[in-house]
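Hi everyone,

Forwarding the result from last night's run.
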Amino acid sequence: MIAGDGPAPRLVLALAQRLPDTSLTAALAAGGREHFGWGVDRHLIADLYDALNQNTRATGNWAKGKAPALPAWPRPKATASRAEQQKPVTVADLYTRLTRR
């Protein structure tokens, strides 16, 4: 790409768009390496677990004010600052994040 060699930009874009939602590239675009492996299915399972906990807590036969605090499903935490989250992620940003150790 630098000297006019390499794959066409349209091909690179098409390949990047076809990556699975659990890929490292999608995780870095979502906010960081802690999102690696967290696809739509995993988010839905975590939401379902939390909904079942809330339903159990709401409909349980607990003594007044004695409903247990049920733990939420552990989710990845955002490590980027608020300003970094609002700006769009560029290919150069993804490259620097992928090559960083």
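The mean pLDDT is 84.

Cheers,
N.
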